[in-house]
């Protein structure tokens, strides 16, 4: 038996269609056009691809996109001045500062300078605290996208064993919080976890977010488990550049009940959730 493939590309298109419809109603009824500002420092090609894609989808959903492309040498003070201006701009409802930032900048300080109500990434310490205490928060986009796919496929997740591999602030930790909110029994595993294979085999839901190409083989997967692969790793195979996840897809698809592919799984959901968070921020700003 092979796993059901969870098609994130199609699901994300549905979410974007719903977001665009909501934006249309807001514009027609209240003259409100949600706006998203994206700030990118430096010339990392992959980050530029992401930012262009965010801008394109923002405009396609009927929202305003404000792109701030700054040199890598931008000072902390200059960046904080820009964030203060975006915080004060009523046309901007969401602010995203693309990470990672150049090493001379203090990312925590920069993120915590964003108005928490405009923090569509959900990285501000206030939103982290709200999520951690089960209160209404801006939820980070990638784990939110994973949760939507899990809910769509599984429905009620109460009592299931969920294992999240990877403890990043962007994915692993908020994912664990969201799964706790679904009444899962959650294990947050990482590079120092003892017998990671056995921990993974206990998972009804396995979320892989470590950023290491195909590090989770098929025989670490419990038969019938739902596998969400957050990894996007660029590798060269047989002389060709390819994108692969953190899970060995060919092995896992034979064992899992359902699995997200890479590409076309979680990736497209991240931008769809960013658009959804921007609309949420705009609605809350309007009261
Ligand atoms: N870099 C990689 N993923 C993300 C994300 O979700 N948000 C931001 N701001 N930067 C990222």
From TrEMBL:
One of its GO terms (molecular function) is methylenetetrahydrofolate dehydrogenase (NADP+) activity. InterPro entries: Aminoacid_DH-like_N_sf, NAD(P)-bd_dom_sf, THF_DH/CycHdrlase, THF_DH/CycHdrlase_cat_dom, THF_DH/CycHdrlase_CS, THF_DH/CycHdrlase_NAD-bd_dom. The keyword Protease does not apply. Residues 6-121 form the Tetrahydrofolate dehydrogenase/cyclohydrolase catalytic domain. Residues 140-284 form the Tetrahydrofolate dehydrogenase/cyclohydrolase NAD(P)-binding domain. The keyword Cell wall biogenesis/degradation does not apply. Pathway: One-carbon metabolism; tetrahydrofolate interconversion. GO terms for cellular component: cytosol. Its EC number is 1.5.1.5, 3.5.4.9. It catalyses: (6R)-5,10-methenyltetrahydrofolate + H2O = (6R)-10-formyltetrahydrofolate + H(+); (6R)-5,10-methylene-5,6,7,8-tetrahydrofolate + NADP(+) = (6R)-5,10-methenyltetrahydrofolate + NADPH. GO terms for biological process: L-histidine biosynthetic process; methionine biosynthetic process; purine nucleotide biosynthetic process; tetrahydrofolate interconversion. Keywords: Amino-acid biosynthesis, Histidine biosynthesis, Hydrolase, Methionine biosynthesis, Multifunctional enzyme, NADP, One-carbon metabolism, Oxidoreductase, Purine biosynthesis. Pfam families: THF_DHG_CYH, THF_DHG_CYH_C. NADP(+) binds at residues 166-168, 232. Catalyzes the oxidation of 5,10-methylenetetrahydrofolate to 5,10-methenyltetrahydrofolate and then the hydrolysis of 5,10-methenyltetrahydrofolate to 10-formyltetrahydrofolate. Homodimer. Belongs to the tetrahydrofolate dehydrogenase/cyclohydrolase family. This is Bifunctional protein FolD. It comes from Roseicitreum antarcticum.
């Amino acid at each position: 038996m092979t796993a059901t493939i969870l098609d994130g590309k199609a699901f994300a298109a549905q979410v974007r269609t719903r977001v665009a419809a909501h934006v249309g109603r807001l514009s027609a009824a209240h003259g409100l056009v949600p706006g998203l500002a994206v700030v990118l420092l430096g010339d990392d090609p992959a980050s530029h691809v992401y930012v262009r894609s965010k801008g394109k989808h923002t405009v396609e959903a009927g929202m305003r996109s404000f792109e701030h492309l700054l040199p890598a040498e931008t000072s902390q003070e200059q960046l904080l001045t820009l964030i203060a201006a975006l915080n004060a701009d009523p046309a901007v409802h969401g602010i995203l500062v693309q990470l990672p930032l150049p090493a001379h900048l203090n990312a925590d300080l920069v993120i915590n300078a964003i108005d928490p109500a405009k923090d569509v990434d959900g990285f501000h310490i206030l939103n982290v605290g709200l999520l951690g205490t089960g209160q209404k928060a801006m939820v980070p986009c990638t784990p939110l996208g994973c949760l939507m796919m899990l809910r769509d496929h599984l429905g009620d997740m109460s009592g299931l064993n969920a294992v999240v591999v990877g403890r990043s602030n962007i994915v692993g930790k908020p994912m664990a919080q969201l799964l706790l909110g679904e009444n899962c029994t959650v294990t947050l595993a990482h590079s120092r976890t003892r017998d990671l294979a056995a921990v993974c085999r206990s998972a009804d839901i396995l979320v892989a977010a470590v950023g290491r190409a195909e590090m989770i083989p098929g025989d670490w997967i419990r038969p019938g488990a739902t596998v969400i692969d957050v990894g996007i790793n660029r590798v060269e195979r047989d002389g060709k550049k390819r994108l692969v996840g953190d899970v060995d897809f060919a092995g896992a698809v034979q064992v899992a009940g359902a699995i997200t592919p890479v590409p076309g799984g979680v990736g497209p959901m991240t931008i769809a959730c960013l658009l959804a968070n921007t609309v949420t921020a705009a609605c809350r700003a309007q009261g």
